[in-house]
Amino acid sequence: MKFKVQVVKIGELVEELLSENMLILFKSEAPDELAEISVLHTMDELRDDVAPGDIVKIGDIEYSVTAVGSEVNKTLRELGHCTFKFNGSREPDLPGVINLDGSTPEIKIGDIISIY
Q1: Which of 25, 27, 28, 57 gives 40 a disulfide partner, CB atoms 3.0 to 4.6 angstroms apart?
Q2: Per-residue pLDDT of the chain (116 residues; tens, 9 = 90+)
Q3: Regarding beta strands 82-86 and 97-101, do their DSSP bridges make them parallel or antiparallel, or are they unpaired?
Q4: Dihedral angle, C-alpha 43, 49, 50, 51, nearest 10 °
Q5: Catalytic site positions
Q6: Are 65 and 98 a contacting pair, CB within 8 Å?
Q7: Which domains are present in the chain?
Q8: Which positions ≥6 away from 86 have C-beta within 8 Å?
Q9: Are 67 and 89 spatial neighbours (Cβ–Cβ below 8 Å)?
Q10: How far apart are CA 98 and CA 83, in angstroms?
C-alpha cells in the first residue's frame, strides 16, 4: 500500500468536474476556494512514488494508473493533492495529474481511496 485515505468532505463543484472525467483530491485542511472543487480526505504518508501500472481504488472500484505527471508525487506528499483524470491516456495531461483507465466513480463521504 503506497497511500490510503478516507473521504471526509465533497466540494459542491465536484460533480461538475466528474462530468468532465476529473476528480481533484486535497487533504482536509485545503483553503475554501480549493475545497469547493475537491474531494477532501484524511492525510496519509505517501510511502512510495505513484507509477504507471499501479492501482488506484476508489470505494469498491479499481483503476489502472496509465500515466503520472512530474509533480504528482511531490504534491501528494506535501498537500495530499493530485488530480485523477479518467481518460486512460499514456501521457500525463498536466504535471499534477494521474491518468486512470476507466470511467468516473460515484464518490461519497467515508469512501476509502488507496494507491498500491
Answers
A1: 28
A2: 999 999 999 999 999 999 999 999 999 999 999 999 999 999 999 999 999 999 999 999 999 999 999 999 999 999 999 999 999 999 998 999 999 999 999 999 999 999 99
A3: parallel
A4: 180
A5: 41
A6: yes
A7: 3-115 (2.40.33.40)
A8: 21, 22, 23, 63, 100, 102, 103, 104
A9: yes
A10: 6
